Amino acid sequence: MAEKLNLNRVDMPKQEPSIRARNYQEVAAGFTAEMAKEEADRCIQCHKRNCVAGCPVNIDIPDFIAAMRVGNMTGAVDALKSKNALPGVCGRVCPQESQCEKVCVLAKKKAPVGIGRLERYVADWALKEGYKEEVKMARATGIKVAVVGSGPAGLTAAADLAKGGHKVTVFEALHVAGGVLMYGIPEFRLPKDIVQSEVDFVKSLGVDIKLDWVVGRTLTVDELQAEGYKAVFLGTGAGLPMFLHLPGENLGGVYSANEFLTRINLMKAYRFPEYRTPVIVGETVAVIGGGNVAMDAARCALRLGAKKVYIIYRRSRVEMPARHEEVENAEEEGIIFKLLTNPVQFRGNDKGQVVSMECVEMELGEPDASGRRRPIEKKGSEFSIDVNTAVIALGTAPNPLVPSTSTGLDVTDQGMVTADAVTGLTSKKAVWAGGDVTTGAATVISAMGAGKRSAADMNKYLANGA
User: Fold this and answer.
1) Which end of the chain has fewer beta carbons closer than 10 Å to its terminal beta carbon, N or C?
2) What Rg do the C-alpha atoms of the chain give, in angstroms?
3) pLDDT over threshold 50, residue 430
4) Residue 402: Cβ within 10 Å count
5) Is the Cα torsion angle 112, 114, 115, 116 positive or negative in sign?
6) What digits encode the pLDDT tens for the residues 17-32?
7) Do the Cβ atoms of 95 and 321 come closer than 8 Å?
């Protein structure tokens, strides 16, 4: 058996680091048809189908790969989209290495099938060829359903609710649909036209997306219910930035990652002055954090003209939560990693602009509640870094607006909406929630899984005469 295994994963072509570090074009070029066929042929079509169980939305992975292998691309699209409304997104940004690929049989040989790369290829093929898969729609019920937020959780829930025959309206606070897919993830990692194509697919199912609707201000959840929406799904995400609460954090040139990335991605600051949304980026930038958002912010800063960009992270490389490929891409592009380092103060000039950051060195102690080794300050290790711009990328929390304006909606001490882990049902009658608003910042695919589970429970609820 082992002799028959093909352990030669097909590498994804990428732009050269020296070139891509100064443009916003997508870094990864995607597979050619020949590459996709070669990688698909590595799948051994296991009977146990561990990869399906490892996928938060239970994509029929062996089925779509089997269709690819025989050149049945329409069948591959149909198999993929039967469970996943956003494959072009998932194929680019989902952490397959810790989910479906992690449990692939070939992972035991450290060469799992490149499931995410194949998913991306199939989705891109459908977009290029203009193929519209046949969608099975239930008979129209006439029941009004509201989805609050058009991020991955909301779009997934909306698609499945529409397939259930309901009249679905999505209420989005921003002027563009897509949530974090639009405002958070850079163009070079997830092109906006890919996101828009996925949004358009959801709209093609009959979903009405209302932009510039701030639920909690324009209308409350209670008012939506009073207007006849028989079920409501909350997919409002976690867009409230966390800060260090250090001296000097309010100086000019110190951004939250939310503001920094939203200006660049959604408001197109990277195309200034065509789009007049300036982001001031000095010659030296420090990004504090070790997750994917920190990598995105650092790589954006480089593309906006910074000559030196630091990642400041208080633990070691081993504990970094960012995807391995994102860390690798950042390093290739010249991002400087200052690990086991923690900021303690920002210093400014007489104009109120940040000019330096005081730091201390750290060492790792015993594991903390997260399972990672606890960082401990080394006495007498203070030092300073000259910086013109600093970006705080420590994570996010849910915005309190919707819970604070909704009666009977329970939240945790951290401000997350309390919801059943399986069904998404909240403490408020006929209201479900899923994604980052219930867990804090997590992955796109986990939010989609939550949206899918909630939609299934909502469809069941509505079918029983709610």
Assistant:
1) N
2) 23
3) yes
4) 25
5) positive
6) 999 999 999 999 999 9
7) no
| Model pLDDT for residues 213-248, shown as the tens digit of each residue | 999 999 999 999 999 999 999 999 999 999 999 999
Q: What does the alpha-carbon distance between residue 49 and residue 435 come to, in Å, rounded to a whole number?
A: 26
d(CA 151, CA 426): 19
Spell out the residues 6+ positions from residue 187 whose beta carbon is closer than 8 angstroms to its own. 24, 25, 26, 265, 270
What pLDDT is recorded for position 2? 45
Q: Which residue has the tokens 């993929």?
A: 80
- Return left, alpha or beta for 199; rule: phi > 0 is left, psi -120 to 50 is alpha, else beta: alpha
77: its two tokens: 């699209």
pLDDT band at 5 (very low <50, low <70, confident <90, very high): confident
Average pLDDT, the chain: 95
The strand order across the sheet containing 308-313 reads 254-256, 389-392, 284-288, 308-313, 336-339
User: What are the pLDDT digits (tens) for 105-135?
Assistant: 999 999 999 999 999 999 999 999 999 888 8
Separation CA 113–CA 107 (nearest Å): 8
The residue among 114, 138, 89 whose CA lies nearest residue 36 is 114
d(CA 317, CA 153): 30
209 forms bridges with which residues in the sheet? 170
Tell me the H-state helices in 339-443: 401-404, 436-439
Reading the block at residue 110, the tokens are 């450290």
Contact call for residues 209 and 177 (beta carbons, < 8 A): yes
Domains observed in the chain = 2-129 (1.10.1060.10), 144-239+397-463 (3.50.50.60), 243-394 (3.50.50.60)
